[in-house]
From TrEMBL:
<feature type="domain" description="OB-fold nucleic acid binding">
    <location>
        <begin position="8"/>
        <end position="115"/>
    </location>
</feature>
<keyword id="KW-0378">Hydrolase</keyword>
<keyword id="KW-0540">Nuclease</keyword>
<dbReference type="GO" id="GO:0008855">
    <property type="term" value="F:exodeoxyribonuclease VII activity"/>
</dbReference>
<dbReference type="Pfam" id="PF13742">
    <property type="entry name" value="tRNA_anti_2"/>
</dbReference>
<dbReference type="InterPro" id="IPR003753">
    <property type="entry name" value="Exonuc_VII_L"/>
</dbReference>
<keyword id="KW-0269">Exonuclease</keyword>
<dbReference type="InterPro" id="IPR020579">
    <property type="entry name" value="Exonuc_VII_lsu_C"/>
</dbReference>
<dbReference type="Pfam" id="PF02601">
    <property type="entry name" value="Exonuc_VII_L"/>
</dbReference>
<protein>
    <recommendedName>
        <fullName>Exodeoxyribonuclease 7 large subunit</fullName>
        <ecNumber>3.1.11.6</ecNumber>
    </recommendedName>
</protein>
<feature type="domain" description="Exonuclease VII large subunit C-terminal">
    <location>
        <begin position="152"/>
        <end position="459"/>
    </location>
</feature>
<keyword id="KW-0963">Cytoplasm</keyword>
<comment type="similarity">
    <text>Belongs to the XseA family.</text>
</comment>
<dbReference type="InterPro" id="IPR025824">
    <property type="entry name" value="OB-fold_nuc-bd_dom"/>
</dbReference>
Length: 478
């Protein structure tokens, strides 16, 4: 090994460089590859990355080489980002014009000289078209009619007047401020309830956050008239979230009309196609709502104007009819008055004459009645005095007889009472028995040995009961 001829590594690298330069000098190649490990040195305006090719049936890498872009190549990449809206970053598939470079220190690499914008736009468009096709195929509430898409949302009817608005927008978004300012300072003095639901409105990886806010609007239970999605301007890649399948599906099915005011001027997003109404910017969305309400107001004003005109026409037609009717009524009234005037005069005269006769007759009747009334009280009083005198005499006679009868009754009662008095009964041989100064009427209360008082008409015996036998009552049996 030591005796064999050898060269330095730098010399070998130089030979490789010379060989590659001779082979690839002045040649460029259009290459399709994916970008990985991308970084950008802003101060030097240099992009560093790797170009890789993946297998057709798997994601395994079958080829890889270091790439870079500076100078004109870096400028073309900036133009690519502006034209496509797609950042030059990892995991994008590109068609680039490259030259082969070899550096003894850094090794083999490819310098990007240009990039095909249409190729990337075509891929994005293919992805967009595939998403739209999937939305139609997998959801019965989405259909395509010609170049238009029919969804549950865009078939909803906007309320006649939009007042309650839920706004889905970026946090501290200038586009949202434009939207709110335009609504709140409209020329017609319309007042709106604007509820903000801030979220992140860029980057496809933020689709779940966006969907969460959309669900939050629904679950509040607030009867919003419309949901407005706003976003200001930006790179086209910032709007890729609005081409997301799940967001497009949710907007298409959402039960409240969705108005988009996404600030991209070149393309229409899938969200725009699924929504009820698509406008270009947040300000345009606000102007659409104002114009919608203004249209309703103009319809009301036009209806008011038509009502006034119709009322005037009806009034004029009916005024003429009323004037004609008034003339007819006036003429008929005059004829009726004239026709009945003589009859009324006759009736009036007859009434006057009849009234005089009646009054005279009634006057005579009143005079006669007056005389009768004046004389009759005297007769009535005289008759009543006689009646009273007779009544007094009858009362005196009746009272005397009644008193005699009652006196006889009282004498009879007094004699009966004297006969039944204890004094007379005692004189007839009866006695009163007492025990302890109490008159005894029931022999059951007296027992042998009791001290008793026996009272006769003129004497009292005090004795003691020695024997008690049953009495047959024959001595008093009359």
């Amino acid at each position: 090994m030591g005796s064999e001829k050898h060269i330095k590594l730098s010399e070998l690298n130089r030979k490789i460089s010379d060989a590659l330069s001779d082979c690839f000098k002045g040649q460029t190649f259009w290459v399709v590859a994916d970008i990985t490990n991308h970084s950008y040195k802003a101060d030097k305006r240099i992009h560093y990355f790797e170009l890789v090719e993946k297998g057709s049936t798997s994601n395994s890498i079958v080829a890889k080489i270091i790439g870079k872009a500076w100078g004109t190549g870096s400028m073309h990449l900036s133009d690519f980002e502006k034209n496509t809206g797609q950042s030059f970053t990892n995991n994008i598939n590109v068609l680039v014009l490259v030259s082969v470079d070899y550096h003894p220190l850094f090794g083999l690499s490819l310098s990007v000289l240009d990039i095909d914008t249409n190729f990337t736009l075509g891929i994005l468009e293919q992805q967009r078209n595939a998403t739209l096709k999937r939305l139609v195929q997998e959801n019965v509430f989405i259909s395509k009619e010609g170049e238009q898409y029919s969804t549950t949302n865009n078939q909803l009817r906007l309320p006649a007047v939009i007042q309650k608005v839920a706004v889905l927008s970026g946090i501290n978004s200038a586009g949202h401020e434009d939207f709110r300012h335009t609504l709140e300072h409209n020329d017609f003095g319309y007042v709106f309830q604007i509820d903000d639901y801030p979220t992140i409105v860029q980057g496809d990886n933020n689709a779940k956050l966006f969907l969460g806010k959309l669900i939050e609007i629904y679950t509040t239970g607030i009867q919003y008239d419309a949901v407005v999605i706003t976003r200001g301007g930006g790179a086209q890649s910032d709007f890729l979230i609005f081409d997301n399948y799940n967001i497009g599906r949710a907007v298409a099915k959402f039960p409240i009309p969705v108005i988009t005011g996404i600030g991209h001027q070149k393309n229409v997003s899938i969200t725009d196609l699924m929504a009820h109404t698509q406008t270009k910017t947040p300000t345009k969305a606000a102007e659409f709502i104002i114009a919608h309400n203004r249209g309703f107001e103009q319809k009301i004003l036009l209806l008011q104007k038509n009502i006034v005109i119709k009322s005037q026409q009806l009034f004029l037609v009916n005024y003429q009819s009323l004037s004609s009717l008034k003339s007819t009524i006036s003429n008929s009234a005059r004829e009726l008055i004239t026709g009945h005037k003589d009859a009324l005069n006759t009736i009036n005269q007859n009434t006057i004459n009849s009234s005089k006769t009646i009054l005279y007759q009634q006057h005579k009747m009143l005079l006669s009645l007056s005389h009768q009334v004046s004389a009759k009280p005297k007769i009535i009083l005289y008759n009543r005095i006689n009646d009273i005198d007779n009544t007094i005499r009858n009362l005196k006679t009746f009272t005397s007889g009644y008193l005699r009868n009652q006196k006889g009754y009282l004498g009879h009662y007094a004699a009966s009472i004297r006969m039944m008095s204890p004094e007379n009964i005692l004189k007839k041989g009866y006695a009163i028995v007492k025990i302890n100064d109490q008159i005894i009427s029931n022999a059951n209360t007296i027992t042998v040995g009791d001290n008793i008082d026996v009272i006769l008409s003129d004497i009292i015996f005090k004795t003691t009961v020695k024997q008690k036998t049953k009495y047959n009552g024959r001595d008093t049996d009359l």
